[in-house]
Write a structure and sequence with these properties.
With about 290 residues, this protein is of the alpha/beta class. It is about 50% helix and about 10% strand.
Length: about 290
């Protein structure tokens, strides 16, 4: 089975039934045992955290909570993959993933927030936004998809919009997945070379490296003007995809007071070296 040099014979299959035989086989096949161990530990932790997410969802349903989780970041920062780890074992009847396409002609004639309001969580529901209304804060002005006046109006209105949601009881969690320019390029190349992932590489992605500094400027303005006590920005260092996924799950679980939380058999407090709340003095983001 598998590629040349990575085939398993009948003898191989017999050997993997013992710990010593498995280790010897992996070494003979030039497999990095450290990476194997890291992946196994990751899968074990992920499963335990996903069990807690199921408990969290039950609480959201029974308590009638409304949770909106915004997942933002540069292209190829790992937003979609993280959302999949959040949602793969949740009840789809009480959870949605929103990834809106470009607005229609009708939507372009509406108040900017209107189409997002339709997607807000109902009672007892968690909604994940794979990019959100913050498209107008960074992507749209960088790519020329909105006017300067549109951008300025958004920046003036967004905190008031979020404060109204907060006052009405909607919990908003805003993640920014932060990666380096070098890591973004590496992931772009991986997408180009993988026929199963080429659909992920868009025209916008093609310009991301060229416009890196423009993205940085608008992103920093967004943080400075839209980070509030009632709706803070949570920065996730995402060069390590596995760590970013685990720690963002931990952040949500640690934040919300769901029933059964005290019985959790895994650490829920996120690693402060990976997940941090934005503050004005932060100067090294996406560097």
């Amino acid at each position: 089975m598998g590629q040349d040099g990575r085939r398993l014979t009948e003898e191989d299959l017999r050997r993997v039934n013992t710990r010593k035989g498995l280790i010897q086989l992996l070494q003979n096949r030039s497999v990095d045992l450290t990476e194997v161990r890291k992946t196994l530990l990751y899968e074990e932790e992920l499963r335990a955290l996903q069990v807690e997410l199921v408990r969290l969802q039950r609480w959201v349903q029974s308590a009638g909570q409304r949770i909106a989780i915004l997942v933002e970041g540069r292209d190829a920062a790992g937003k979609g993959g993280t959302i999949r780890r959040f949602t793969e074992h949740l009840n789809p009847r009480a959870m949605r993933v929103v990834a809106l396409p470009k607005p229609t002609d009708e939507e372009r004639g509406q108040w900017y927030f209107q189409r997002y309001i339709r997607q807000l969580p109902n009672k007892g529901e968690i909604v994940f936004f794979d990019r959100s209304w913050y498209n107008r804060a960074v992507v749209e002005p960088v790519m020329g998809f909105c006017s300067k006046k549109d951008h300025q109006r958004f920046m003036q209105q967004v905190t008031e919009f979020e404060h109204m949601l907060y006052e009405d009881g909607v919990v908003i969690i805003k993640f920014w997945f932060s990666i380096s320019k070098e890591e973004q390029l590496r992931r772009f190349e991986a997408r180009r070379n993988n026929p199963l992932k080429q659909w992920k590489f868009s025209a916008v992605d093609e310009k991301a490296q060229e416009l890196w500094d423009d993205y940085t400027r608008y992103k920093e303005e967004m943080f400075s003007k839209t980070h509030t006590t009632f709706s803070p920005w949570i920065i996730v260092k995402a060069n390590d995809k596995q760590a970013a996924r685990l720690e963002s799950l931990r952040y949500v679980l640690n934040l919300l007071p769901y029933k059964g939380k005290e019985q959790a058999q895994i650490r829920l407090a996120p690693d402060p070296n990976i997940v941090t709340r934005f503050h004005r003095e932060m100067v090294e983001l996406d560097l």
